[in-house]
């Protein structure tokens, strides 16, 4: 398949390229045990099941710490799904937690896991079927990753799966930029290029749609990622959004 030179492909990572929910949940649980001494070392199987269910509303990795705590305290998954932001804000306030510290703890736990058990960490971060082959079809100069994950973790997972990417083409948590802003920057630096953005979170795509300067960005909703049936129904009704059921590059 020949890819047009005037196209740029920007992909989200977790939920589009990598099925990281198990690793994210385990990391969140272990960091939570550092903060709350009443939690057992091993994550109960039911809490992992509930975490995967809630994963579609989670935006940034450190929130896994708080989700695990709330599930341990007995909050019903459906209630957390429908009232996520308020519940997260409430536990941050109640326990006087600092998001910068939580992000640091989350990243440090992952760094230690990678250092001590890299192969085990990689196994908990599998690529979605077909996505590796898809990424290898895209020329290096045209491939970008836009994610809320820290960039070094993205690079480690891609390298372990023999996928090359230019390091500066990974826009992660380290940049402290929202995805619409990153797309705007790419648009300005590639003025003659069509940008195609593949994302599994409907709210992120809607943020792009609400940004007038991004009206020419092609939007694709990855249905295999962390989203709900309700998200899919809304995406299908939106004329700006193309839905993808399997990893592929629309014409």
TrEMBL record:
GO terms for biological process: DNA repair. SUPFAM superfamilies: HAD-like. One of its GO terms (cellular component) is cytosol. GO terms for molecular function: phosphoglycolate phosphatase activity. It comes from the Bacteria. InterPro entries: HAD-like_hydrolase_sf, HAD-like_sf, HAD_sf, PGP-like_dom2. This is HAD family hydrolase. The lineage of its organism: Bacteria, Pseudomonadati, Pseudomonadota, Gammaproteobacteria, Thiotrichales.
């Amino acid at each position: 398949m020949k890819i047009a030179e005037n196209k740029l492909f920007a992909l989200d990572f977790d939920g589009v390229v990598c099925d990281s929910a198990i690793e994210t949940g385990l990391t969140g649980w272990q960091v939570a045990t550092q903060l709350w001494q009443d939690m057992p070392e091993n994550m109960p199987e039911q809490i992992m099941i509930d975490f995967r269910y809630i994963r579609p509303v989670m935006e940034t990795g450190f929130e896994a710490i708080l989700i695990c705590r709330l599930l341990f305290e007995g909050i019903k998954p459906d209630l957390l799904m429908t009232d996520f932001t308020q519940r997260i804000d409430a536990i941050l306030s109640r326990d006087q937690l600092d998001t910068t510290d939580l992000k640091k703890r989350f990243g440090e736990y992952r760094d230690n896991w990678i250092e001590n058990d890299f192969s085990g960490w990689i196994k908990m971060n599998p690529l979605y079927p077909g996505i590796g082959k898809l990424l290898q079809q895209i020329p290096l100069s045209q491939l970008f990753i836009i994610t809320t994950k820290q960039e070094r973790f993205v690079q480690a997972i891609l390298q372990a799966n023999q996928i090359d990417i230019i390091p500066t083409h990974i826009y992660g948590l380290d940049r402290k930029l929202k995805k619409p802003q990153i797309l705007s920057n790419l648009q300005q630096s590639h003025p003659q290029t069509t940008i195609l953005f593949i994302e599994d979170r409907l709210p992120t795509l809607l943020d792009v749609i609400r940004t007038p300067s991004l009206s020419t960005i092609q939007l694709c909703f990855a249905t295999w990622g962390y989203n709900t049936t309700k998200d899919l129904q809304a995406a299908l009704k939106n004329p700006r959004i193309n839905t993808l059921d399997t990893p592929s590059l629309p014409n």
